[in-house]
Amino acid sequence: MKRAAVLLLSLLLLLSQTACLGLRQINELALVTAVGLDIGDKPDTVRVSVQIIRPADARGQTGAPSGGTGQPIYSISAEGSTIFDAIRNLGRFSSRRVYWAHNFVIVMHEDYAKKGIEEMVDFFTRNHELRMSSWVAVTPDRPDEVIATITGLEVVPGEAIDRLFRNNHIVGRAPASNMMNLEEAFLSSSTEPVLAKVSLKPRGISNKKPEEHGSLEQVELAGAAAFHGDKMVGWLNSKEARGLLFFLERLSSGIEVVRCPNNNSEKLSVEFKEARTKVTPSFPNNKPHFRIQIKTNADIVESGCGINLDQEVRLETQKKLENQLKQNIMSVIDKAQNNYHSDFMKFGDVFRNKYPTEWQSSKKNWDLMFAKATFDVEVKASIRSGVVKAVGTEIR
Amino acid sequence: MNMKLKMQRVSQQARTSNQQSKFQITNGMFIAMMVNLIFVKAIGVTQGVLARSIGQDMWITTMLGMFQGMVVIYITYLVLRKTPDLDFMSLAQRLLGKWFGKLIALVIFAFFMAGFGPVMLTFVYHIQDYFLPEAPLILFFVAPLLVGALGCYYGLEVMARLALVGMLFIFLLNVLIIIGSTNEFDIRNLLPVLENGFPRTFMASLNYDTDWAFATMLAAIVMPSLKNAGKIGGTTGLIGIGASGLLTMIWSILEGAVLSSEVTSQYTVSCMKLARNAHIGTFLQRYEMIMIALYSIPILFEVMFFIYATSVCATRIFGLKSNRSMIPIVSVILGTYGYWIVGDHYRAINYLEETWPRIALPIAFGLPVLLLILRLMLGKKLNKQS
């Protein structure tokens, strides 16, 4: 009797432990690698474009492998009154069930971003399949074109954009915005979101027709889209984005081009590295003030000046680098304060951390207070070397 | 003489209904049981509740709650110190008679039954919302209750050993989440400290108190099975609550610093939000499935212990000799109640944040204090009896 009961219980256990519920076979899924969001043709609708990978054709080679079509991706779009509705409508065209877990990037059109991204943030964070590390960007071009453009060496465009973002810290001309930091900034009371800008540029050279320079469009990652609340308020160019990164991502290295001390028409390339940013808030006369200090080392990595890089050149170049970095920072602060009235550089965060009591009373009208805030920017650069070449002494 | 015989019978009943006559748990097992019982809900849903009430100071509220738990577990130990072979129910019976013992059993039964709602919502919302959204809800009740009932049938030893495995898995889980989250760690998200003032932060810690309440009630039932409970019960209890608090604080610090309190506050199961954000380098992403596998043992232990605790209490209420016959009955009662709570997210969240603290806190704080007072008042009577 006891054995029979245990046997019965074990069978019941086995039945309840089967993994067949919720089963989804990989060959029945449409693996999305990039998403585009735009305003639909009909009023008050949204257009969702998805780039779906063809596993048979995306095995790391171009051309048509046996049994494949030669096209590593399949792109479709659908419209709906909400994102969810549009995605359900994608099911009318896609022979497989749309699966989001491998999505690399979400690209929005600037018109869509200007209408408000609350719905988008909510949908993609509510979706349990989506990676929170998916990159998010805004484009002035058609998002469906951006996500379908093959850039670089990658076979899948979504993966190519993913690589652009992953290597972004080397170029440092756009924020590495993903769902995780977008959601954080979107929900924060002391900062505003800022997203990377991607755009199509005719920079590719066809192997077959090299004389037609720029015949192939490539995706460029440079610049940023500034938001106030959930609405995009404007663009930041790549120089302003460089200034922004000191605050958002503690940018520590990058290349700056400065004029030669002896000849204004020639240039020097300077690589700054180990940059450290410090923001110190104060609150004199109930008006926020921020002291921004940046200290950085630098190397001269290219010189077209035709002179010995002696001590005098060193000091002069240091000064020029300092001014240039300061200008980058001042221009983005100016845009945030006067053009966009949006604190996307996290000054509110810094102020709140130093003055929590004052923040309670000022958070409601922080936009006004931020517009009146004053800034001191101090950049201290120290050029250390000319990389492999001797500096400071001439051939005697 | 007659009285003495009666008291021996009470102790005997305590032992047989707890199935402890053959097996005594070690202090390591006792600590592991406490950690398993607290950790699951504390990282699963409590951190979200704390973020909603106190923002980035959730790690401070967890710490404050931990200290309160340490005080209460020590009071629980003081209650049982001189009669380590008695649990709360047997002690109550010896202090004020059979009816009082049954009343205390009923209160503890009600505590564990009411607590099954938050436990199951933690379990179900983890698995169903993030992994198996299309699976029927009933599956998430039948499977753990069957496993729980089976473990409970084999007694305290099986549960205690499972808790040790669960403890190891909790360590691994914490190691994985630390490695996967350090990259995005931003200490500025934890500032300013005590932004809402100390009184409000302290009040918010009551939400974490509902988690260690499980452990003090566990001690109220299981401490007689602990080896040398009279000597080491206090220290072991303190270590159990302290270890649970520290292991939980790792999550509250990470959730605050990596996700920010604003993001944490948006989610029912905030730890899953952190888990799905975690990645080791570029190529090892989305390993929350591994983490949920590690999490499953502590949560199964929790279900198992709730069946055990309610079956022991029911045994005392009905004056039965063994709790085994009550296991299927309480499993059905717990399952039905849990299903009713979990079936509706609105009801579940309201129950978690409003109703459950009102049930848990008076019992968790009140019962040990009441029994300590009675023990001090009627201590002489108890000494005479023994």
What distinguishing features does this structure have?
A: 396 residues; alpha/beta; nine-stranded mixed sheet; four-stranded mixed sheet; 13 helices; 31% strand; globular; B: 386 residues; Amino acid/polyamine transporter I; two-stranded antiparallel ribbon; 16 helices
CATH class of chain B: Mainly Alpha
Question: Which spans of chain A of ≥5 residues are poorly predicted at pLDDT below 50?
Answer: none
The CATH superfamily of chain B bears the name Amino acid/polyamine transporter I
- Proportion in helices of chain B: over 70%
**What shape does the CA trace of chain A take?**
globular
Structural class of chain B: mainly alpha
Mean pLDDT of chain A: 88
Number of helices, counting only DSSP H or I runs of 4 residues or more of chain A: 13
Structure description:
The complex is a heterodimer of chains A (396) and B (386). In chain A, 38% of the residues are buried. Chain A is α/β, with parallel strands linked by helices and 396 residues long. Chain A starts with a helix and ends in an 11-residue tail after the last strand. Chain A has helices at residues 2-16, 83-90, 110-115, 118-126, 143-148, 157-166, 168-171, 179-187, 238-248, 311-339, 347-354, 356-362, 366-372, and strands spanning 29-39, 46-53, 73-80, 97-99, 105-109, 135-139, 194-205, 213-228, 231-236, 254-259, 267-282, 289-303, 374-385. Chain A is 33% helix and 31% strand. Chain A has 13 helices and 13 strands. The model of chain A has no long low-confidence stretch (mean pLDDT 88). In chain A, the strands form 2 sheets. In chain A, strands 1, 2, 3, 4, 5, 6, 7, 8 and 9 form a 9-stranded mixed beta sheet that branches. A 4-stranded mixed beta sheet of chain A has the order 10-11-12-13. In chain B, β1 (279-280) and β2 (284-285) form a beta hairpin. The longest helix of chain B has 33 residues, at 98-130. Chain B has helices at residues 2-17, 27-54, 58-80, 88-96, 98-130, 139-153, 156-181, 198-204, 206-222, 229-259, 261-264, 270-277, 288-317, 326-342, 345-377, 379-385; strands at 279-280, 284-285. The mean pLDDT of chain B is 91. Chain B has 386 residues and is an all-alpha fold. The termini of chain B are close together. Chain B has one domain (36-379): Amino acid/polyamine transporter I (Up-down Bundle). Chain B is 79% helix and 1% strand. Chains A and B meet through α1, α8 and α11 of A and α6 and α12 of B. Chain B: This is Spore germination protein (Amino acid permease). Chain B: Belongs to the amino acid-polyamine-organocation (APC) superfamily. Spore germination protein (SGP) (TC 2.A.3.9) family. Chain B: The chain crosses the membrane at residues 25-46, 58-80, 100-125, 137-156, 163-182, 202-223, 235-254, 292-314, 326-343, 355-378. Chain B: InterPro entries: Spore_GerAB.
